[in-house]
Amino acid sequence: MRIILGTPVNSRPKPWLYFRVPAIMVNAFDIMRNRGSRREHVIKNVLQYDGEVWMDSGGFQFLRHGKVPNIEDLAGVYGQYWDIRYFLNLDYPPSPTDDEHNLETKLRKSLNNYEYLIRRFDNVLPVIHYHWRTEVIIKYIIKYLDYNPKCIAIGGLVPYVLISKGVPKDSRRSAIKFLLRIKQETGMCIHVLGLGSPVINPILKFINIDSTDTSTWRVKAAYGKVVMPGGGERHVSGRSINFGGKEQAVTI
Description:
This protein is α/β, with parallel strands linked by helices and 252 residues long. It has helices at 28-33, 35-38, 43-47, 59-64, 71-78, 100-118, 134-145, 158-161, 171-186, 201-206, 216-222; strands at residues 2-6, 23-27, 52-56, 86-88, 124-125, 127-129, 152-155, 190-192, 211-214, 225-227, 233-235, 240-242, 247-249. The strands form 3 sheets. Strands 5-4-3-2-1-9-8-7-6 form a 9-stranded parallel sheet.
């Protein structure tokens, strides 16, 4: 299973300059805010990276900033770069508390965006966010399969795996079983959005998920930490750290 590193376009640090990274994921929201990146038509030149690059719509970032993304604007960003392996569809993530009507409305709007984008690009992946009303989600996955996508990206699993407020009981098990069912029944390439972590990765690998992505490495790096294979983290900066009480100096 591949772990794709999520990163801003003009990021520091760039670990791919020092060791092999199988793929990188950037997002269109970041590019729209970065005028320098928009003058470039080869994203790998900006990243200083010669491997596979995916581009997410940045829908989550749009929502966090209180903005409604426009599919035409997104298509304009996608059309600027010729060296992207996959573009991800702009979808509208459902909330665990959405009723069936609101869930269907968001899924239908997401499908409309996909139909718009695939008329312009042949490397757009459908994105569908998990919801505990799994039969509704599966109905829309079947609709996407009619377009013969090379892979399906499944998001929205984080609140269920972390058992956040508003999710049903036993949500972690249900989410993993859903992924397993989709993989077994479709036999397709499955990418899981935003779930790459040392704890979850072995589970995803066990059920034959093809890839996942993570930006956790950047958050950890900002605090002088590195993520260890198999779980856990280590402080490597030597600066003072705070565990919630008395400050302690880290000795390397």
